Amino acid sequence: MKTNDIKKGARVHLRNGWQGTMKDNAKGNTRMVEVEGFYTEIGSVYSHDIVAVETPTGLVAVEHTPAQLKLRKLVG
User: Fold this and answer.
1) Which of 47, 63, 55 is nearest to 14 (CA)?
2) Which of 61, 52, 57, 6 has its CA nearest to residue 30?
3) Measured between alpha carbons, how far is 60 from 54 in angstroms, rounded to an integer?
4) Are 63 and 42 in contact (CB under 8 A)?
5) pTM score > 0.85 for this model?
6) Cα separation of 43 and 41, whole Å?
7) Strand 30-36's sheet: what is its strand order?
8) H/E stretch holding 71
9) How far is 3 from 22, CA to CA, in rounded Å?
């Protein structure tokens, strides 16, 4: 699944081990997610930090676009 295909309300797993709920239907390098970490808060998350999506059939890995992978190298 690509990050642009993730719909509002979907449960996502982040690269740092935290989980969250998608809060928008946007496309691009950042998405709004309600992250459940040390605190629960809503904020922008880089698309390349989303690694999996929960579906009724189980966890589905996320495929990143070349642009998202390039941004990950720049940020990291």
Assistant:
1) 47
2) 6
3) 6
4) no
5) yes
6) 7
7) 40-46, 30-36, 19-22, 11-14, 50-55, 58-61
8) helix 66-75
9) 11
